[in-house]
Amino acid sequence: MERRTIGAGGLAVGAVGLGCMPMSWAYSGSRQRGDESLRTVHRALDLGSDLLDTADMYGPFTNELLLGRVLKERRRDAFVSTKVGLLVGEQHIVANGRPGYVRRACDASLRRLQTDVIDLYQLHRADPEVPVEETWGAMADLVRAGKVRALGLCAVGARGGRRTGAGLYDATLRQLQRVQQVFPVSAVQAELSVWSPEALRALLPWCEARGVGFLAAMPLGNGFLTGRLRPGEGFEPDDVRARHPRFTAEMMAANQPIVAGLRRIARRHGEEVTPAQVALAWVLAQGRHVIALPGTKRECWAAQNAAAAGLRLTAQDLAEVSRLPAAQGSWD
């Protein structure tokens, strides 16, 4: 697989990584199978999708434990990325950026992952009660201690408000400017897909100008851009899409032209090419510093996603994607 670099340190990873969250968190709990997830991780590593993206809150904790079973055997094959800063309660999620907590959380993640170093340690969310410089400084100390190789920041999500508007990531950009003064940022993770392209306006250019890697989360639009979801099928109560404004039956039907456009482009590249692969290839075409992180818990989809790294979209394809209608949702 094509290799891309993260940060000034030149850490190399496959262009398509593996988002591990669906294996333990947020999507269809009844369909989560530990053995199948293990096979999926092994298959991804075999194909060069070596960036394994997880977080201590996924589960919570169970996602890191699952990956630890693979890393115990194949640590040299993997680039491990996990996150800190969010605590999960029964009915709520709260931020914790206190330096002492960050140190304890890192040690706990290392134990669960069965490794002595985390390749990329990301701040999931800044704690509004703690100056972000203090949290970042504690994370930088972990690099100096040899427990972490590089630091990343997860962008403040668009789902807290409207997806449209030039200032969508202003808060994240301000955080980046502040933490960059403390210790170099190697990667920024934010949503980027055909139906959520807002990061292209300011966040991606910020990363490109500074040699910072961009980790594209949800590049398949929470599964919608695969073309396998049908309006009205519904979701399990624990599935985040059951409460997502773009996954009502009405909005899924209204957004079908986006999938139809991806399918047209896929047909031009061959019978075996899928809309999901076109969606991933579009993400990768946004810059050499971009790494796609599609999430899956199934081996077959991990293989299909990895193959998208070899798909090259033409200028005609990219122009056609740019003309697709904007995604609709209850916030529009």
Explain what you see.
The protein is built from eleven helices and twelve strands. The strands form three sheets. It has an eight-stranded parallel sheet with strand order 3-4-5-8-9-10-11-12. A two-stranded antiparallel sheet has the order 1-2. The longest helix has 15 residues. About 2% of the residues have low confidence.
Keywords:
single chain, 332 residues, alpha/beta, two-stranded antiparallel sheet, 12 strands, 36% helix, globular
The strand count comes to 12
Percentage of helical residues? Answer: 25-40%
Shape: globular
Task: Please mark out the parts with pLDDT under 50 across 5 or more consecutive residues, or reply none.
Answer: 159-163
Structural class: alpha/beta
What is the H/E string? EEEHEHEEEHEHEHEHEHHHEHH
Helix and strand layout, with pairings?
Layout: E1 3-6, E2 11-14, E3 18-19, H1 34-46, E4 51-53, H2 62-74, E5 79-84, E6 86-88, E7 93-95, H3 99-113, E8 118-123, H4 132-144, E9 148-154, H5 170-180, E10 187-191, H6 203-210, E11 213-217, H7 249-254, H8 256-269, H9 275-284, E12 290-293, H10 299-307, H11 315-322
Helix pairs in contact: 1-2, 1-10, 2-3, 3-4, 8-9
Can you give me a brief rundown of this structure?
The chain is 36% helix and 16% strand.
